[in-house]
Amino acid sequence: MILGGGFGGLYAATSFRHRGDLSITVVDRRNFHLFQPLLYQVATGELSPSDIAFPLRVVLSNRKNTRVLLGEATDLDAGNRRLLLADGTAEPYDVLIISTGSRTHYFGNDAWEERAPGLKSIEDATRIRHRILYAFEMAEKTHDPDERRAWLTFAVVGAGPTGVELAGALGEIANDTLRGDFRNIRPEEARILLLDNSSRVLSPFAEPLSAKAEQALIRLGVRSILGVRVTSVDATGVTIHRESGDEHIRANTVIWAAGVAAAGFGKVVADRTGATMDRAGRVLVDPFCNVPGHPEIFVIGDGASLKDADGKPLPGVAPVAMQQGRYVAGVIRRRLEGKPVEPFRYVDKGSLAVIGRASAVAQFGGEKLQLHGLFAWLVWLFVHLMYLVSFQNRLLVFIRWAFNYLTYNRGARLITGDPLPVVQEPPPDTPETLKPSTPTDRQAQQPQPTR
Amino acid sequence: MILGGGFGGLYAATSFRHRGDLSITVVDRRNFHLFQPLLYQVATGELSPSDIAFPLRVVLSNRKNTRVLLGEATDLDAGNRRLLLADGTAEPYDVLIISTGSRTHYFGNDAWEERAPGLKSIEDATRIRHRILYAFEMAEKTHDPDERRAWLTFAVVGAGPTGVELAGALGEIANDTLRGDFRNIRPEEARILLLDNSSRVLSPFAEPLSAKAEQALIRLGVRSILGVRVTSVDATGVTIHRESGDEHIRANTVIWAAGVAAAGFGKVVADRTGATMDRAGRVLVDPFCNVPGHPEIFVIGDGASLKDADGKPLPGVAPVAMQQGRYVAGVIRRRLEGKPVEPFRYVDKGSLAVIGRASAVAQFGGEKLQLHGLFAWLVWLFVHLMYLVSFQNRLLVFIRWAFNYLTYNRGARLITGDPLPVVQEPPPDTPETLKPSTPTDRQAQQPQPTR
Q1: Which of A329, A356, B354, B377 maximizes the CB count within 10 A of its CB?
Q2: Which of B330, B354, B356 is nearest to B342 (CA)?
Q3: Min CA distance, A95 vs chain B (Å)?
Q4: ipTM tops the 0.85 cut
């Protein structure tokens, strides 16, 4: 039984193809596999949700030994080998692979979530898309210059790959996509701020690539504010702390790309098996990805804590989950055949981060081969298209990208959800017939304590 | 000023192209034009929302005399010629074109909306998609045969074009799309019921076409139950009334395609101008689409009540709105030039309704030319692709259709929104650790009075 249809779970499930004697169940609370590396493109209106989400039943439909179960795991009965679901049913297993991924982490400030959404799910992405597009609409509408400036200020917290991709895409939206669409504002006047407490952007990459990325961001109008810590997020913006003192940045749109933690099921696993969790909620596994003392339970992907041969912790990226998924499927098969198994060994095929149009950074073989600019971007494009699961979507994504590249447009610029969002909206006035126009002060109406 | 960016408003806005001296404002509460005729394809997972929704700013960006305002109209100050918006601002106008469209109408039973969503917005469509896909997932999961049958029963209320299109698409989902995706159920066993109080399906069409459509539906596994009135919709399904007595049909998925009424702004117009409304909330306009006594206010599209030359009321379809949009733009231009204007005359170019794969009905010249089957479907395909506003989307839609036709797949089969929906879910059990599996009786948990 496999819990979670992300990269880890899906790659495990598809690695049992020649074992018709095994019965595989994939449990997920969503009916689709989400191609997370492109989620930022949904958040920025370049792709549609269905371009990067593939129904699990379709991906697995020709595996007759595999069934898909829509359900949310709530508990684990490790003694009787049963997984308990939210609807009250219990699913028995012989072997369990747990690949429940990660969630946005606010370092203890969960109240910030409402003001600064993270980017982990389709809903997160459409919510962020909503906020970005809505901010330009409100800037167009308001007559108050301060208000307008607040609507045109976008703060992205976290300068890792996700933060850089979001900030870069925001730069393109402001400079290219929306050009000419408004009458009262010039979208290119938007201020896009990228905040991080590290001293450089893309800190997992080699230093020269960080510098290249920062230059590319500047060309897109993104200003990096580094070496700062966010101490508060509220209705008026963010407060940052640096050695020289605190500063408040007024911004009506804040996006959180600063941290992830393991999804909540890790705690259940730890509680029920006695395993240890690290600070980010990941379960410490043995070199075979097993929960210690439970050779029938594997934890893989973002929810697992494991070190590579050099003693460095494995990063929370898709390739680790994919390789672990394939690896544990192999371990299970070999153990059934009575063959010995080797510990998991991560093969780092390289890292990629896209910044914008024809602009990316890449490194391979540790930091031995470094690429940037157009060539890195073409590599990024190729790799992502190749990994997209279904052919139909690959073609659709390619067409969208080609159009966007040629026309600077973004086809999925929809504000969906509530017709007019409640977030950062003034409370509805008591309907007074024929009330005269009064500019309202949003800040005054939604006071929030500044921490 | 144009209120509403649907077919009527958009066609009006784009008809002022050579009048740079006029200043046009399009007000809409959404940031996109929705191509409603294909909305049922979003509801049935064939297309993505962004395939049929086009940002208004993009459609109108090269019209320098036109601005787009995101806002919801709440009131009309006809004396001072001002439109009042929900955010408390007032927008002055010289001439106002009101094209606010229609909404789902439950004939006084608004409580049914929760159980039987209608299909008017992107959110409606993704909600219906959610329910349809979720029903198959629940049927796969349950072990109770009655429960399974209730999840596999789909009742579509209303056998007009929308109801027929939805029922036909449901038939294809059950018979083709989901084939082989499940392990415990056979999706083709789904019961799809099409309910209407008329004596035939597609009653606006010629009788022979109704018969053809009903045959085509039967081949898709859709059962039409005609000459019945729905008297109740509750958690257990629908109750229908026929002369021989009442019958209750247990169905966990009910979709409402039975009626539309004018959007709420019509009432404001009637209140503020003294105009008359008909039973469906539409404003009675004069032959120039003007509100009587207000040559500066036009009402067009689904929100207007007007008769054609034969004294028959104009239908609530997109071509009427498009033609009226172009027409009132012409009236405004001619009046400014001091030229006389002719009353509005609707040119009926024909009617089309699609039933499924390679199956549609069409009539042109009243009922003179009738088509059905593959040829009608190709006409439908061509017409809809031609009317799709942007080239990018037209191509994407074409590719999706081509793939769906060849593979029987549907690329946008996503259950989005809440991770697990609350609708028709049992209330969450008090979490009892290691509680044994107990099938729950959903009916007992969500009692609703049967009318």
Answers
A1: B354
A2: B330
A3: 18
A4: no
Measured between alpha carbons, how far is B127 from B124 in angstroms, rounded to an integer?
Answer: 5
The answer to whether the Cβ–Cβ distance between A55 and B180 falls below 8 Å is no
Q: Which among A321, A329, A271, A273 is positioned nearest to A300, based on CA atoms?
A: A321
Interface of A with B in 277-296 (CB under 8 A): none
User: What is the rounded distance in angstroms from the CA atom of residue A125 to the CA atom of residue A131?
Assistant: 10
pLDDT tens for A313-328 read 999 999 999 999 999 9
- Whether B438 is in a domain gets the answer no
Give the closest residue to B302 by CA, choosing from B103, B28, B73: B103
Give the C-alpha separation, B50 to A429, whole Å. 33
Which residues are registered as beta bridge partners of A83?
Answer: A76, A91
Q: Give Cα A412 to chain centroid, integer Å.
A: 18
- Catalytic residue ranges of A: 165
Residues B269 and B332 both lie in one domain:
yes
Instruction: List B residues 211-230 in contact with A (Cβ-Cβ < 8 A).
Output: none
Mean pLDDT score, A394-401: 72
Looking at A314, A336, A358, the residue that finishes a domain is: A336
Q: Is residue B16 part of a domain?
A: yes
Domain that holds residue B16: 2-29+71-104+261-336
d(CA A124, CA A40): 10
A353 contacts chain B (CB < 8 A): no
Are A173 and A222 spatial neighbours (Cβ–Cβ below 8 Å)?
no
The whole-angstrom separation of Cα B166 and Cα B446 is 27
From residue A304, alpha-carbon distances to A15, A97, B170, B449 in Å are 20, 11, 41, 50
CA B74 to chain A, closest CA, distance in angstroms equals 9
Q: What tokens were used for B74?
A: 């709440």
Classify B353 as helix, strand or coil.
strand
| Total residue length of chain B | 451
Q: How many CA atoms lie within 13 A of A362 on its CB side?
A: 22
Please say which residue of A296, A319, A336 terminates a domain: A336
Contact call for residues A17 and A63 (beta carbons, < 8 A): yes
Whether B120 and B20 map to the same domain: the answer is no
Q: What is the pTM of this model?
A: 0.84
pLDDT value at position A394?
67
Compute the distance between CA of residue B186 and CA of residue B171 in angstroms, rounded to an integer: 13
| H-only helix segments in A44-85 | 49-52, 56-59
